Amino acid sequence: GGGGWGEECEYEELLAGGCPEEPWRYGRDLLLISFLSLDLSLDLSWNRPCRYPEDEWETFPRPFSRPFLEPSCRYPEDEWETQALNYTSGTTGRPKGVLFSHRGAALNSINNALIWSLPQHPSYLWTLPLFHCSGWCFPHTVTLQAGTHVCLRSVDPAAVFAAILSQRVSHLCGAPVVANMLLHAPGAAHFGAALTSAAAGGGQRVKMLCAGAPPPAAVLEAMEGLGVEVTHVYGLTESYGPAVACSWQEE
User: Fold this and answer.
1) What is the pLDDT of residues 127-157, one digit of tens each?
2) C-alpha pair distances (Å), 236 with each of 22, 61, 98, 126
3) CA-to-CA distance for 191 and 226, rounded, in angstroms?
């Protein structure tokens, strides 16, 4: 392929730096989905038959030209229609299902951007599972801000460090265990030095939303030493993700 949307682009070519114009870049360990270069003149009415991909590494000849749903795709007729069904044990330990409506997901997507002061074109690293409370609605939030989704096969510290530096990640989410894993991983000191050096020069800054039990002050301080600003939030699957936030004060 020569990098155009009308041509196929193989995985090996991507590794060699090919297909520079494609915003959908495939890799076996890293997947970037960028919404900066999409042709917004495309017909997005979804009024045609849809199908599943034949192979998980199948490439897109053109964005959204072959949506992978069936039997058909459509806009919701009502904003209260169910968008997703999430299963959760919750704080009670009793498994239950939680229905997400299109309206609720849309409102919380906007709320995420407001509470985090999320700028346009963020680079968001998926250290939060997409299946966990629908990713706290961040699939919509990042797309709303025309950002880039940086996806990993697994939350491995080395892969996280490499992705943050190589893809200039600006935001990520996760539980306190993710922060602890990064702090105690081999190479954390080297990563912290590289990131804080970039931030000191007015460059890359990384922010993290950490949900669940409040991280100890020592963890917050250590993460700051890595160059990552942590904000604690709390929510429920029933609230579509983060519902309250512990905002930083000037003092």
Assistant:
1) 998 888 999 999 999 999 999 999 998 899 9
2) 37, 39, 10, 19
3) 7
Which amino acid appears at position 167 of this protein?
Answer: Q
Q: What are the structural domains, with CATH classification, of the chain?
A: 82-246 (3.40.50.12780)
92, amino acid identity: T
Contacts 24+ apart (CB under 8 A), 102-110: 102/76, 103/79, 104/240, 105/134, 105/137, 105/140, 105/240, 106/79, 106/140, 107/240, 108/136, 108/137, 108/239, 108/240, 108/241, 108/242, 109/137, 109/138, 109/140, 109/141, 109/144, 110/141, 110/144
- For residues 221 and 129, what is the distance between their CA atoms, to the nearest angstrom? 25
Whole-prediction pTM: 0.72
